[in-house]
Amino acid sequence: MFEVIVIGGGIVGTATAYHLVRGGARTLLIDRHDPGRATDAGAGILSAETYSGDSEAWFNFALEAADDYPQLVAELEPFAEGDLGYGRCPKATVAVDDDELGTFEKARRAVFERQRRGGRPAADALYEVAPEAMHRLFPSLAEVRGALYFADSARVDGRRLSAALLRAARAHRLTGRQGSVERLLIRNAAVAGVIVDGETIAAKTVVIAGGAWSSAFGAQLGTRIPVEPQRGQLVHLRVSDADTSDWPIIEGFRGHYIVPWPAGHVVAGATRETGSGFAAEPTASARREVLNEAFRLVPCLRTAEVLEVRVGLRPLSADRMPLLGPVPGVAGLMLATGHGSTGLQLGPYSGKVVAGLVLGTPVCDHTPFLVDRFLAA
């Protein structure tokens, strides 16, 4: 008998399983490798400090996640096969056209107000850059009207990091199984295991970390798990005539970005296709949208080679906040999903938080992310 079963092998589920087995829990990770898993198609921008949204709970949690990343990376280094896929990289948030200036000004005020209140990051790490100075920092950038520069952001390759997490978890005796969980086994208002491809597997605790597919268990529970797939498409490019290793991450104000990697590799993203369902195929219109915005921000990308288009079905919650913690009315059942487009930014830390709840060693205040907030509403 297992102590814990984790459903879903994306970054959140794998991180949860990793921290569980490190804490001594006999754990089974079940994954069916669905096409369109968000972990495999994320841009991997780690830059909580440049967040300008309204949610303080999300912002504080993202700062904690950013602080935890270096420790996790150090733990996983012995299990990396080559490059782990994590690195520091500055980020510039830029307004190129006049219609972005209003949004830029709003973001500028929010970012610097949070910096003033919280005392982080330092003024020499996050600051406004004049257009001509921004062009000197990154000559390939289009002419800009305004720019914010964050020197301490980072990027991560979701596939590489997730693979290292899985290898590390296996080294701590994680059991893995490929299969589809048909039903949860519930007895006397408590979870007792799962049924996988017709076989019953017992466990005292079950963690639903199925990404965009997590909502499938809602019908059995007699409730709604408020998560739906949001399709995100990214285009991977190769630039043959530029050194991309010293490029910053570039983010505009139309929902798109450029993430550079060494050796001429550049990722342009991304669409946000709410209502896409579980269609995981790339589309011509999305490719055009992403590339047109990439050309607007960094014109030299017009001559880049297209390597591939990746599609991720992001688990978007109804309020765009993660769902972390117990499911009311079913003892031993946990949720770890709903991260939307921030799965690579928050996912590893979310796994640590949920594992801590299972093990009885809480990591942080997770109450803003309980599913109860929807039930109360």
Give me a quick take on this structure.
The chain has helices at 11-22, 56-76, 101-118, 131-137, 158-171, 218-221, 284-297, 343-359, 372-376, and strands spanning 2-7, 27-31, 45-46, 86-88, 91-95, 126-129, 146-150, 154-156, 175-178, 181-187, 190-196, 199-208, 227-238, 249-251, 257-260, 265-269, 273-274, 305-317, 323-326, 333-337. With 377 residues, the protein is α+β, with helices and mostly antiparallel strands. Strands 5, 6, 7, 13, 14, 15, 16, 17 and 18 form a 9-stranded mixed sheet that branches. Strands 1, 2, 9, 10, 11, 12, 19 and 20 form an 8-stranded mixed sheet that branches. A 3-stranded antiparallel sheet has the order 3-8-4.
Protein described:
The structure is a single chain. This protein has 377 residues and is of the alpha+beta class. It folds into 2 domains: 2-41 and 159-227 and 319-376, FAD/NAD(P)-binding domain; 87-154 and 228-316, D-Amino Acid Oxidase, Chain A, domain 2 (2-Layer Sandwich), CATH 3.30.9. 30% of the residues lie in helices and 29% in strands. It is built from 9 helices and 20 strands. The protein has helices spanning 11-22, 56-76, 101-118, 131-137, 158-171, 218-221, 284-297, 343-359, 372-376; strands spanning 2-7, 27-31, 45-46, 86-88, 91-95, 126-129, 146-150, 154-156, 175-178, 181-187, 190-196, 199-208, 227-238, 249-251, 257-260, 265-269, 273-274, 305-317, 323-326, 333-337. The strands form 3 sheets. Strands 5, 6, 7, 13, 14, 15, 16, 17 and 18 form a 9-stranded mixed sheet that branches. A hairpin with a 4-residue loop joins strand 15 and strand 16 (265-269). Helix 2 (56-76) crosses helix 8 (343-359). It is globular. The relative contact order is 0.21.
